[in-house]
UniProtKB/TrEMBL annotation:
This is alpha-1,2-Mannosidase. It comes from Amphiprion ocellaris. The active site is at E98, D239, E332, E353. Pfam families: Glyco_hydro_47. Its cofactor is Ca(2+). The keyword DNA repair does not apply. Residues 490-527 are annotated as: Disordered.
Amino acid sequence: MTSFTPLSTFCLLLFRMQRIKSMFYHAYNSYLDNAFPYDELRPLTCDGQDTWGSFSLTLIDALDTLLVLGNRTEFQRVASLLQDTVDFDIDVNASVFETNIRVVGGLLSAHLLAGRAGMELEPGWPCSGPLLRMAEDAARKLLPAFQTPTGMPYGTVNLLHGVSPTETPVTCTAGVGTFILEFAMLSRLTGDPTFENAARRALRALWKTRSDIGLVGNHIDILSKKWVAQDAGIGAGVDSYFEYLVKGAIMLQDEELLNMFQAYDQAIQNYTRFDDWYLWVQMHKGTVSMPVFQSLEAFWPGLQSLLGNLDSAVRTFQNYYSVWRQFGGLPEFYSIPQGYTVDKREGYPLRPELIESAMYLFRATGDHTYLQLGFDALESIERIAKTPCGYASVKDLRDHQLDNRMESFFLAETIKYLYLLFDPTHFLHGGGTEGDGSWEEGGDGGQCVLGAGGFIFNTEAHPLDPAALYCCSRHAQDHQELRDILLSLSQPDGRSKPPAKQTEDPPPNPSDSIALKPGEKRTPPLLSCPVQPFNARLSIFGQVFTDNT
Ligand code: DMJ
């Protein structure tokens, strides 16, 4: 497709890429001027606030977007600034899910792109480096959440003290199953298998809880393994679990993950699909509990295209695009039978999912419908959400009221996917074996070829390079050999013992499950999950999420 792009289309694409750059810098500069070091910009009051932690989240999340837009000098400046200013040793209750996808994912991706960004690389990169150490540091803070009898993590962890004894054991499905990409990459780069093992243990435990008809619900008690919210669907609370099974299978060439997804997909197609929409159904009976489309579901056509299910992906995309055209954005919830928004769910917080699907489908089909969606999105966001100080979440798509919030995913994902949609030759689309397509340096023996096989985007649009997994395998082997030697030296008879076999479900020490010391002051944390607070009582009536008024 790219070699035959007519000149007029080419110029149009270039023009749109420029506009997206301007959008990015309008928001980014405003964040730096008015909100840094807080997590997020408040675009109506032109100041900042901490939201998901207290780690300059927007800057971490936006770091790789700088490189995507070609700004190597600012990438270098910010990478150094973050190393000097961000500290994860803080007494903050953080979402395990959000910290992983935004912070660990953002730092890992920036680490892997550091060579291309012209950063000075330390010997051993990409198997070592300051951004990798930061990612590892952040991920280590999350590990106490995984020390549970089931291996499924708590939703919230205190970065300094670990999991509070009063922490709720109820978390959403995505909060259990969205770790394998970042944790496996971390383990393979650093040679420490702890992260990947934790993610796999959680995935296997979750898999065992599926219903007889092969579906999972929305919120689970990670201690009792009981489903607390039994609505099964592909949207809020579940979405990235399925995404990580597919992308994990691709990135790690892992059949177990693919088999899991395919079994789920069969049940999803059987029970939840209706006219190429996906409804919410009761996980044990398969009866419809909510005939609603949620904006978070719009990632699904993109995921289907990764699996080659193009026909179905195209039809579902058309359904979702019709909702976009109706409102000039995607409302959080859309009632399919009524063809209208759902009460209290009329907002559009500038989410990326439909644009993300458009990017994949444009690459797969070359159909200009997807460029049109990108153009519509660009125009809508400029018209409805732009403020003198950034871009604001739309509180209500019917009257264009705004909220004083700019989520970090706007710069990490929405802008990035828009730009990549309009730049079909971007290095992140992969396929390059020369020039800009690959990057050769570092790794064990200096034979690391990065970027030649494409990238896998984590659920926050942070590109991960599957080729890097192989750069550090010798490094990991050396680590293992060193560990074995140290172990053998510590044996009384000096003889080496064979390394202990990794069990699938290692029983944790119960005292490890809570890292806070008795008597310490704790704030009862909110139920935490990717999207919104959850109220089990309302879920019984088929309204999965609480009214946030
Ligand atoms: C992002 O943080 C991630 O894409 C997550 O998987 C879902 N929610 C937001 C974007 O909508």
